[in-house]
Design brief:
It is a single chain. With 150 residues, the chain is an alpha+beta fold. It has 3 helices and 6 strands. Helices cover 27% and strands 15% of the residues. Strand 3 and strand 4 form a beta hairpin. The longest helix is centred in the N-terminal third of the chain and has 26 residues.
C-alpha cells in the first residue's frame, strides 16, 4: 500500500557513511591499543610467580622472532601456518619457551580454526586470563611455567 521509500539526500548519506567509517576506524584503533603488547609483555600477564623467568633480551636470544612474537608479545600465527595443526602422532606438546609439557596429543582435535586445539591440558600446565579485545571476551591460554602466550 505504501510505495514511498524514505531515503537520505546524497549529502546526508555521504555524511552518515563517513561518520560510520570514522566510528569503525576508531573502534579498530582502540582494539589495537588493547591487544598490542609492549616489548615487555610480562607486565601484562596475571600476577603469578613463574618458575621460568627471563628478561626480554634473554627471551629474544632463546626464541626465534616468530616464537617471541607469539609467546612474549601475544601475537597470533596465521591460521593453517603451523605444521602442528596436522600433527597426529602420539606424544606430548610442550612450550617452545621453557619445554613445559602442556597437552597430550590424545586430547588434540580438529576445531576448524586453523590452529592446534586441545580439549584438556595436562594438570597444572596452563593458566588463563580474560582477553576482552576485538569487542568480545575470550579466554587467553598461557604456559603456567613461563607465562608464554599459547
Amino acid at each position: 500500500m505504501f510505495n514511498r521509500v524514505t531515503t537520505f539526500s546524497k549529502p546526508r548519506r555521504h555524511f552518515l557513511e563517513k561518520l560510520l567509517g570514522f566510528i569503525a576506524l576508531i573502534g579498530l584503533i582502540w582494539s589495537g591499543f588493547t591487544t598490542r603488547r609492549s616489548a615487555n609483555a610480562e607486565s601484562l600477564l596475571p600476577a603469578t610467580d613463574f618458575k621460568v623467568k627471563k628478561s626480554p633480551t634473554e627471551w629474544h636470544n632463546t626464541l626465534t622472532p616468530e616464537q617471541y612474537a607469539v609467546l612474549r608479545d601475544h601475537d597470533t600465527e596465521p591460521p593453517h601456518s603451523s605444521p602442528l595443526t596436522h600433527e597426529n602422532r602420539k606424544g606430548i606438546f610442550y612450550c617452545a619457551g621453557c619445554n613445559n609439557d602442556l597437552f597430550d596429543a590424545a586430547t588434540k582435535f580438529e576445531s576448524g580454526t586453523g590452529w592446534p586445539s586441545f580439549y584438556q591440558p595436562l594438570a597444572g600446565a596452563i593458566g588463563t586470563q580474560d582477553d576482552s579485545s576485538w569487542f568480545m571476551t575470550r579466554i587467553e591460554v598461557h604456559c603456567a611455567d613461563c607465562g608464554g602466550h599459547l
